[in-house]
Amino acid sequence: MEAENCSHEEPVECDTESAKGTDEWEVDESIKQNWEKQQAELKNQLILYDVDEWAKLRLSGNNSQGDSRPLKFVGGVDISFVKGDKYNACAAFVVLSYPDLNVVYQDLSMVHLTAPYIPGFLAFREADFLVNKVKKLKRSNPELMPQVIVVDGNGTLHPRGVGLACHLGVELDLPTIGAAKNLYCVDGLKRDEKHFKQCSQWKAFTTGHSSGYDVNSERHSITMATHIATLKKPGDSFPLIGQSEIQLGVALKTCQDAKNPIFVSPGHKISMETSAWVVQLTSKYRVPEPTRQADQLSREYLRKNRKDST
Predict the structure, then answer these.
(1) CB 208 within 8 A of CB 250
(2) pLDDT of 246-255, one tens digit each?
(3) Fold of the CATH domain 14-305
(4) Domain extents for the chain?
(5) Which residues, by range, are in coiled-coil regions (predicted)?
(6) 148-151 and 176-180 strand pairing
(7) Mean per-residue pLDDT over the chain, rounded
(8) How is 236-283 classified by DSSP, letter by letter?
(9) % helix / strand / coil in the chain, to the nearest 5?
(10) pLDDT band of 124, cuts 50, 70, 90
(11) Given pLDDT bands bounded at 50, 70 and 90, which one contains residue 8?
(12) What pTM does this model have?
């Protein structure tokens, strides 16, 4: 499979999730209210700190193969849609070995979407298909179960703080990470408008995961483009802090040639810092390998099985 050059990218855009499987199905307001209630209940179950031993080893800088519970397997999930078809898509779940990032397991299949797409409620459209694939692996090949799953979407970077990665994490009781290509514009976050306020409670990330840019400088607000320009090398990042002054995610430069960052946020049973760490560890190009492989394999599956695919 030919690897793309990460320098050839589209400009970063504000993502309202509208591009992914948008349809025109009408949804009763009571359904949305029920979904919001479910999201509120799920939010109360979120664990946004490191739970597993492999994640805690990050703090000690000791995650070698000599450890009893190192990071060995990382999962990735994505759904690719059939062009012009609002009902059918290919769901993909892959597992990569770490540190070589080879695909050791893949499960791809066509799925029939039975729920409408509404911005902010992506999980109610996609989560069940992805959850079932992970549970299938746990039954058939538990020795290949990933210790963390990277999701093509968002975790806490979401209008109600519960994106697709959060849903998957709680349903599976596994650490999950949201890694989005475009910024989800919530809580006042905007791509090219002045919005970053001086934040007195923000603390710098651990060494290696901060660009060194002083958010608490005399400039009380700067543009997203200016923030991105401070990212000079892989591993550089800055926090995504909205009008609420709550950190929702991280903008992370994953490879040297990447003009735009990946927008990372924790889903479940993992911290913000470790989420960025995992995404950086698993990135050869701009998009982390777990979701890049899931995306490429699902698109290839559609090309082979659907003449009308994207």
Answers:
(1) no
(2) 899 999 988 8
(3) archaeoglobus fulgidus dsm 4304 fold (3.30.2170)
(4) 14-305
(5) none
(6) parallel
(7) 81
(8) -EEEEE-TT--EEEEEE--STT-SS-EEEEEEESS-HHHHHHHHHHT-
(9) 30, 20, 55
(10) very high
(11) very low
(12) 0.82
